[in-house]
Specification:
elongated; mainly alpha; 3 helices
Length: 102
């Protein structure tokens, strides 16, 4: 197995499968769930105009950082998908030499 495939398999094991005793996968799952809950909380708090005016910059930065993290997670899931011997998604090349195409 090539080094590239080994890395993909490690990424897949961390982000997709939560085996008992797999601490890295557990930490990743807790991190993502916590980030989701924090985003929901931020949206609720941000709906109060007084709070939003005072912490507007914080909410924007938090939103951008969250989007970046969720995008990275999504891209890692796409690339690691082939490590599970699942059929590839048409038009997606995990080495990013090709972009989504019709």
């Amino acid at each position: 197995m090539s080094r590239y495939l080994k890395i993909k398999k490690i990424i897949f094991d961390i982000i997709e499968t939560g085996k008992p005793g797999d601490h890295a996968s557990r930490i990743f799952d807790v991190f993502i769930v916590t980030l989701i809950v924090l985003n929901i909380t931020a949206i609720i708090i941000e709906s109060f105009e007084v709070i939003d005016q005072q912490y507007h910059l914080f909410f924007r930065v938090f939103e951008i950082v969250s989007i970046v993290i969720f995008t990275i997670e999504f891209l890692l899931r796409i690339c690691a998908k082939s490590a599970a011997n699942l059929p590839p998604i048409p038009g997606i090349n995990c080495q990013f030499s090709a972009v989504f195409r019709n």
